[in-house]
Structure formats: structure tokens, C-alpha cells
Specification:
CATH architecture of the largest domain: 3-Layer(aba) Sandwich
Shape: globular
Structural class: alpha/beta
Order of helices and strands: HEHHHHHEHEHEHEEH
Number of helices: 10
Largest sheet: 6 strands, parallel
Strand content: 5-15%
CATH topology of the largest domain: Rossmann fold
CATH superfamily of the largest domain: HAD superfamily/HAD-like
Number of domains: 2
């Protein structure tokens, strides 16, 4: 496992931006089943490999991948997104879980006065739903969804806007991601990246500064955390 622990310990981190799906909440199976249920209406198969490839992609881009045979209008994409995500929320209510050490990691950030944000390719309704289900809506200084930017991941817009709202420069921001799309977005934004191996295996997550299997391990790797001006 690669580690740049010395970089994280010696350089300033004023803001940590969390991806949501696969980082804050273990939603992969729920999303996969929701897509499979939705696509079955059109007699479209949906494999585990397909899901792994698209996980972390914004729904607008995702719809073009899943419906290559259709000329989708903006209205079509919005309808598909709304119907599929409604299935996700319905099937996930009361069932969401996070990863080992997550809540303790939030407390660690508070202890060292490190601001926290959410930067997700999910729609706003899903982001609000997950944060409310986990009882953490008030823990973040900025929350940015795919609905809040023109381009979702792998474009850097989500992370850049999260940092802008928080009042922190990209160079002082650290992103925690599980997807290749998100890691690419963070790198393009000029931010350092921690890759969580919750969705992909370690060898699949290139261009990260640090790899960790969960927050319990990550907490040990980056303590003490140096805090500086944005």
C-alpha cells in the first residue's frame, strides 16, 4: 500500500472533502439493486462489472452510458434520474451504514479544527437523504451535489465549489474518495487525495497520495494533523 504519511503530517490541511457514496455511506449494493430494478423495466441487463465501471459517475453522464441506443433529452435524463433515485431512497430508508471509524474520524477533524465538506456526484435529494439518515447534516461547512455544478466528476467542479464555499484553497484541501472518477476530479482540482478501498481494490486506485481500507486505519495514518491557513 502506498503512503505519503510524511506529506500529510508536515503540510497544512484546512479542509477535508468527503465523497458520499462509498465513503460516507456504504450505498453500493443499494444503488446497484436500484439500477437493476429500474433497468429491468426496459429488459436491460445490468451486471456487477457495469456497476463497478459507472459507480461515482454523475447521473447525466451515466444515463448516456446505460442508454446508448437512445437520444436522451434533458427531460428524459431528469425523469430517469428521479425514478431510479426514488427507488434507492425507498429501499435504503433506515438501512444505511457507514464504515469503520467514520464518526470517530469526524470527531478527530473537529478536535484539530479541520473544516469538513461533502462533494458528491449524487443528486441533491440523495445527498440530503443520506446525511439526514446518518444524523450528520450539521457536521459540514459546505455540501455540494451534482445538481449544484455544471459538470459532475470526473470534472473538478464539485470539489472546487466545495472548497470555495468553505473558503479554503485547493492546495489546502484533502479529498477522500473511493472511485476512479472522483480521484481524477480531485487531482484535476489540484487537491491531495486519499483513496478508500471500499469499492475498488488498491491496485485500481492510481494517482492517490494515500490508500486506506477504512477510517479506523486512516485515523492512525494521518495523526497528528497539521492545520494551517487556507
Amino acid at each position: 500500500m502506498k503512503t505519503t504519511q510524511k506529506i500529510l503530517l508536515r503540510e497544512n490541511v484546512s479542509l477535508i472533502i468527503f465523497d458520499m457514496d462509498g465513503v460516507i455511506a456504504d450505498t453500493a449494493e443499494a444503488h446497484k439493486l436500484a439500477w437493476r430494478e429500474y433497468l429491468s423495466r426496459f429488459n436491460k441487463p445490468f451486471t456487477d462489472d457495469q456497476f463497478k465501471m459507472i459507480f461515482g459517475t454523475g447521473n447525466s453522464e451515466l444515463c448516456q452510458i446505460l442508454f446508448p441506443d437512445r437520444d436522451l433529452s434533458d427531460e428524459d435524463i431528469e425523469r430517469i434520474e428521479n425514478e431510479k433515485e426514488a427507488l434507492f431512497r425507498k429501499n435504503s430508508t433506515g438501512l444505511l451504514v457507514t464504515y469503520a471509524g467514520f464518526f470517530e474520524f469526524l470527531d478527530l477533524c473537529d478536535k484539530y479544527d479541520v473544516r469538513m465538506a461533502v462533494g458528491s456526484s449524487a443528486c441533491r435529494a440523495n445527498v440530503d437523504f443520506v446525511l439526514q439518515e446518518l444524523g450528520i447534516s450539521n457536521r459540514f461547512v459546505s455540501v455540494v451535489s451534482a445538481d449544484d455544478v455544471e459538470k459532475a466528476k470526473p470534472a473538478p467542479d464539485i470539489f472546487l465549489k466545495a472548497a470555495e464555499i468553505a473558503g479554503v484553497s485547493p492546495i489546502a484541501s484533502l479529498v477522500i474518495e473511493d472511485s476512479t472518477m472522483g480521484i481524477e476530479a480531485a487531482g484535476t482540482a489540484g487537491m491531495r487525495v486519499v483513496g478508500l478501498t471500499t469499492t475498488h481494490q488498491a491496485h485500481e486506485l492510481d494517482n492517490t497520495d494515500l490508500l486506506s481500507k477504512d477510517f479506523k486505519e486512516l485515523r492512525k495514518l494521518i495523526v497528528p494533523l497539521s492545520v494551517g491557513a487556507a
